[in-house]
Amino acid sequence: MDNGYEKEQFTTISFKVSVADKFRVFSKKMGASNSMTLLMMLDFFETNNLSPKESIGPTVHTLENLIKKRVSAVIAILRDMEKSQTRPTVAMMQSLFQEAEPKNKPLLVEKNRVEEKKVRFQEKRDNDNQI
To answer: pLDDT tens, 16-50?
Structure first.
């Protein structure tokens, strides 16, 4: 029985036989009484601001396929961005912030060449004086 409408009376609406038969088949598919099916249909049109005279345009399935394609395209773009931009940037940032071990290079020691030159110069003078 129709929940919430048990105490209401029935009324008669005249339909063509072919339309009434088609509606009864549709009501059985919906699994509801004729009254409830008609009520659901009216609620659907009112809540979605649709008119039976207007064309809805693409069907729900074609819209769903279009949305899936666009979502797939967005996912592909994001994956490409991740591969080409995000991962290399993250790797560079990690390498910058990791503590780099200092290389054990020998320290540069300044040689005291002044003393060597003085000694050599004096040796030369001594050798010159001997001749």
So the answer is: 999 999 999 999 998 888 888 989 988 888 887 77
> C-alpha angle 25/38/20, rounded to 5°?
40
Question: Rg of the chain's alpha carbons, rounded to an integer?
Answer: 46
pLDDT bucket at 128, cuts 50 / 70 / 90: low
Interhelix angle 34-47/17-30, rounded to 10 degrees, is 80
- Measured distance CA(35)–CA(32) in Å, rounded: 8
CA dist 41 and 25 (Å) reads: 14
CA distance 25 to 18: 11
| Cα atoms in the Cβ-side hemisphere of radius 13 Å centred on 124 | 6
Q: How far apart are CA 128 and CA 35, in angstroms?
A: 134
d(CA 30, CA 87): 52
Asked whether 75 and 83 are in contact (CB, 8 A), the reply is no
What is the tens place of the pLDDT at every residue in 46-71?
887 777 777 766 677 778 888 999 99
Task: Identify the CA nearest to 2 among candidates 48, 40, 45, 29.
Answer: 40
